[in-house]
Every structure is written in structure tokens, then in C-alpha cells.
Amino acid sequence: MQKLLLLCALLPLSWTKPNASLINQINSQQSAWTAGINPFDDIESRLGFLGIHPDPNFKPEIKEPQATQNVIPETFDAREYWPECADIIGNIRNQGKCSSSWAFAAAEVMSDRLCIATNGKVKIQLSPEDLIDCCHYCGNQCKGGYTYYAWNYFMLTGLVSGGDYNTSTGCQPYSELNYYRITPPCNTTCQNDKYPIPYVSDKHFGDSIYYIPQNETAIQNEILSGGGPVVAAFDVYGDFKIYRDGVYIYTSGALFGRTAVKIIGWGTENGWAYWLAANSWGKDWGALGGFFKIRRGTNECGFEESIIAGQVREGGSTSPTPVTFTATVTPPTTPGSGVRVAGCGIGLVLSMMLFYLLKF
Ligand SMILES: *[C@@H]1O[C@H](CO)[C@@H](O)[C@H](O)[C@H]1NC(C)=O
Ligand SMILES: *[C@@H]1O[C@H](CO)[C@@H](O)[C@H](O)[C@H]1NC(C)=O
Ligand SMILES: *[C@@H]1O[C@H](CO)[C@@H](O)[C@H](O)[C@H]1NC(C)=O
Ligand SMILES: *[C@@H]1O[C@H](CO)[C@@H](O)[C@H](O)[C@H]1NC(C)=O
């Protein structure tokens, strides 16, 4: 306990720039995950999840995924289960300094599910840029957005293809890594002039959207039998800045905001059950090539409560039944405002809050 109090007292003073002693403190305090230096510190400009929907009273359709597998495997990796789509599923993207994780996580899951539904025949990266620039009801572009609306745009308007920054892959490759809070105008032509298909002909569509109940088994069934990876989101605290590998469990630091990611599998490591998730902060972030593991089954940092997925129109799905919305978009929440403790480690948060109260 003395150690914890000491840690709490030191953290706020040293938090602006993680240093070796802080990393050592986290590494000696627990053994589930390892802290270390990452290529960047400014994670607050790389988040971007405002919620699945702006209306707090919104009741999404809940789907109880049907299990087509008798047994849920102990360990699962979508890249191995669908090897024909391994490079799409395993592609770590980079949103840069644009709070557009809502668009990245959604477009990644759409791409994976399109590939899986067509048995690898339609193997393209869908364009987060198309969502960020052109879906005005999806939220606030490079200042955050709603994952449910991103999927709604996929159903109503469709998404063109678009690879990573500095590639000439697809109709609208990502155009910039430094769009901090600025978004380029919507352009409904292919920005890649080498791409042969016109923008309007390059659209791919979603067929349904639904919310997955906060239930570990339901999430596993949806990934395994419901079409592939799913869109998740969670609260990002200061210690996530220095995540390198292992199973992330909140230890310390203030809330920065929320970010959306995609879940591609699960497993157990040193006794900790985890989700395997793809972040969109580039391959150099963390020590797992841009992936990370987070505790499974305990709604760690809200990880299991904002999960959505849907079906794609190609690949034998039923006739499209688009959902229409009268979108009212609320202003973005300031990163760091509103402390949501549920689901995350609690003791330290409380002592941190006490510390701040006493200090100011
Ligand atoms: C590193 O962090 C410790 C507290 O964890 C602090 O006392 C020390 O001044 C920091 N050093 C630097 C160089 O920031
Ligand atoms: C992108 O390409 C340009 C021109 O080739 C180069 O100057 C720049 O460093 C590249 N950026 C990244 C992030 O690779
Ligand atoms: C859209 O992009 C095309 C091709 O890059 C360009 O010629 C055109 O001016 C752009 N339009 C707008 C409205 O930005
Ligand atoms: C989670 O879902 C499974 C079926 O998908 C069900 O059997 C189980 O009771 C659910 N657990 C909880 C805690 O709701």
C-alpha cells in the first residue's frame, strides 16, 4: 500500500513525458504487461471514439450471435482461421494525428468481413478517408466520430477502396498523417489517379449493423461464426501510452479519451485471458507490430460494452435493408473530461483522484 501511495504521488508529477523510472515502476508493480518507450507520446490526438451513437437513449438492435461451432477454441486468431484474408486482417493501419479511430476500426472490420464473406475474392482495403471526409453525420471527422454511423454510411452510401498513407493502393488512400483536428474536404473522385475504377463504381456496401451484447461468449461467437472481426472501443488512460506487450490491465494515469479498435482473436497468456486487438497507430507502436492484448471477460476499460459488427452486401447476404437515421450530432467530448471508472482498475484511480483533489 505504501508503494501504491508513493506511486500515486509521483505519477502526476512525471506524467507529461514517461521516463525510465515510471516505466520501471509499472513493470515492477505488476507482471501482466510490460511498459516501455513508444515512438510517440501524443496519444490524445490519435483517439477519436465519441460513442457508437450520439443519442444516449439509442437502443441498437442487439444480435445474439448464433454459434455454429460447438466449442469456442481457447486461442483464436482470425489471420490463421481465414488464411486467404490474413494480410487484410493483419494489416495495421495508421490514422496519424487525426482522431479518426472510429473510421479506421470500422473500415478495417468492413474490409475483413468483405474478404471473409467472399472467401478471399474481394480482397481490398476500404477507405477510412472516404468516411472521414464525406460522412458528415458520422461525427466530427478528425475530432472523433460514431462507429455505428460509420457502418450506417457503409450501408447507405458505401465505401470506396483506399490503402495506407504513401501507397497508391485503391481509390482514396489515406492522404495525410498530420491532420490534427483538420479534415480535408469531401472529394467524390478517386484521389489516386492510377486507380482504374471510378469513385461511384468502386463503392462497397454493408447489409446490416447490430450491437453485440456485453458478453464474452457472444463476442467470441460473433467473431467465429458471425462473419469475422468486430469493432470495439475502450477508455484510454495514461499508462496505455507506454504499453509494449503482454495483457494490458489498467494500472495508473489519467483518462485521455476513448478510441476504437478491432478485435481479431483471443487467448490466454501467463494465466490472463485476453482479447487480441489491432490498433491503428502504425506497426511501430508497441512491441507486437501494432497489435495489443487486453484483459478479457472483465470489461476492462469498457472494452466489451461498445461492440458493433454487421454483414456486408457482397458474398451471399440477403437483400439490403438500409436503416435510416435522422442524425443529430453532439459536440465532441473534450479528451480527458468525465472520468468513467467502471470496468477499469479502481483503487489507483480513486487514489489518483484524491491526490488531485488534495493538490488543487
Ligand atoms: C522521472 O520520473 C520520476 C518519478 O517517477 C521523477 O522523480 C524524475 O524527476 C523523472 N525524471 C525525469 C528526467 O523526468
Ligand atoms: C511519404 O512520401 C514522401 C515522398 O516520397 C516522403 O517525403 C515522406 O517521408 C513519406 N512519409 C512517410 C510517413 O513515409
Ligand atoms: C477533387 O479531386 C480532383 C482530383 O484530384 C481535383 O481535380 C478536384 O479539384 C477536387 N475537387 C474538390 C472539390 O476538391
Ligand atoms: C453470454 O452469452 C451466452 C450465449 O451466447 C449465454 O449462454 C450466457 O448465459 C451469457 N452470459 C451472461 C453473463 O449473460
Set down the secondary structure blueprint.
Blueprint lengths: L1 H13 L5 H10 L3 E3 L13 E3 L24 E2 H4 L4 H4 L11 H17 L10 H7 L10 E2 H10 L49 E7 L3 H10 L4 E8 L5 E6 L6 E15 L2 E7 L12 E5 L11 E6 L34 H13 L1
Parallel strand pairs: 2-4, 7-10
Antiparallel strand pairs: 1-7, 3-8, 5-11, 6-8, 8-9, 9-10
Helix pairs in contact: 1-9, 5-6, 5-7
Structure description:
By secondary structure, the chain is α+β, with helices and mostly antiparallel strands. The chain is built from nine helices and eleven strands. The protein has helices at 2-14, 20-29, 78-81, 86-89, 101-117, 128-134, 147-156, 216-225, 347-359, and strands at residues 33-35, 49-51, 76-77, 145-146, 206-212, 230-237, 243-248, 255-269, 272-278, 291-295, 307-312. β8 (255-269) and β9 (272-278) form a beta hairpin. It is globular and about 55 Å long. Residues 1-15, 316-343 and 345-360 have low confidence and may be disordered. Bound molecules: 2-acetamido-2-deoxy-beta-D-glucopyranose (4 copies). One 2-acetamido-2-deoxy-beta-D-glucopyranose is lined by residues 166, 177.
Poorly predicted runs of 5 or more residues: 1-15, 316-343, 345-360
> Strand count, sense and closure of the main sheet?
7 strands, mixed
The figure for the number of domains is 1
C-alpha Rg, in Å?
20 Å
Compute the number of strand runs.
11
The CATH architecture comes to Alpha-Beta Complex
CATH fold descriptor: Cathepsin B, Chain A
Distance between the termini: 23 Å
Shape descriptor reads globular
